[in-house]
Amino acid sequence: MTTNHKVYQALIVGSGFSGISMAISLKKRGIHSFVILEKEEDIGGTWRDNTYPGAQCDVPSALYSYSFEPFPGWKKKWSDQPQILEYLRFNVEKNGLKDYILYEKEFLSSLFIEKEGYWEVKTKQGDTFTARSLIMAVGQLHHPKIPTFKGKEVFKGNIWHSAKWNHNIDLKGKHVGVIGNAASAIQFIPKIVSQVEFLTVFQRSAKWLLPKKNTLYNDKDRHLHRKYPFMLYWSRHSNNAFNGVFYHLMGQNKFWKKFWQSVSMSHLKKTIKDPELLKKLTPDYPMGAVRVLLSDEYYPALAKENAEVNMEGISHFAEDGIITRSGNKILLDVVIYATGFESNPFLKDLDICGLNGISIKNAWKQSTETYLGMTTAGFPNFFMMFGPNTNLAHSSVLLMIESQAHYITECLTHLSRNRLKSMDVKPDFQKKFTLQVNKRMKKTAWVQVKESWYKDGDVIINNWPGKAKEYQKLTKTVDESAYTFCQ
């Protein structure tokens, strides 16, 4: 247990893409008085935690990397988890961030000390830190969602979530059940189907899926990327432009929906010939209403003789398997949850108290309101990265993260340059921003489904309703009129 009496200019929580981008931005502007708290023994966030077979990004490598740090060493057009983690470590090393990161320091609580104008942060290990600004870079996808099925405690087989993969269990010859069929499931199912005796996928609803067409980069490609860096920039630009087409899926553009739905159905029918399985894998909702998935391997995996898709619904667990709502028992040795993450509420279970000791949980009790998804009224010098309404469903979220790192750096620079104690967003600016976002959301495809991880009740709380370019423009400079400053 330690009490660090140094007052840092900034304290960053989390060392994934957001935290590292933030640290690099600060250093480039000459801000060196900061520290990064990381709860684990290594950096990486979601790319450290998710080690399931086949873990891979669904954004092309050239675009799923920092704009200021193109990486000529990519092995694939769509990179696997190990190399993405390698890329993050490369950025830490190159930018001299090792000494700024404190490992196994898990955030416990924080309190804004108004008189002094700084945040007091405590860790679960008993440490206390103080900083002028607190930057939460904890991401949205790090609390695995575990369904509360009856009787799961009596199941005598092995059970785990895809985000906490049990590498000690050999799946060879086992009967395996996978609950869920979204982004993680479509990646690991093709990798395990050839190992298991039999695979049952418990599916609630089919997902729209497009071909990925992943390709390998050979030594010659990597040599050219190193020799001619513009090739990576061009690849990044072209991928971003192509992803702009998917933006129209998030709205209600009938032409693009019809076009991409036809591409998706063609991809499905090319592989799946069994009429019953084809029916199970055909979505019954508009494309774009939930996350559109990419895979070349998922449909072929389900077409194998030792795989089936079960849509009977789960009633409860038994000692030796799962009982469906139809009363059928599916004998299982292993159950794997591919049920996603608890993305709401934001900053789940984190004790953050602003002015007058008001917790962020209570401040957001009626609705989660922010300004630009980064600041919230009553919490001076408090910033969020990848916060409410800043997720992209059509392109690389790193575009948003870099914009946020730039904006927050501008805020900290303004505070330092003008010797200001604090800045707090005005409630009316926050209200106006939230109302505008919610109004635009009503015109998107996301409102056309009852439930998705994008939503908190009837409110779409995760996603940004516009293009990344629009957000980049909004965050290029700090509108000082939106904040109350204290000296």
From TrEMBL:
Q: Which residues form a coiled coil?
A: none
Top-rank taxon: Bacteria
Q: Which PANTHER family match?
A: FAD_NAD(P)-BINDING DOMAIN-CONTAINING PROTEIN-RELATED, L-ORNITHINE N(5)-MONOOXYGENASE-RELATED
User: What name does the UniProt record give this protein?
Assistant: Cyclohexanone monooxygenase
Q: Which organism is it from?
A: Chryseobacterium vrystaatense
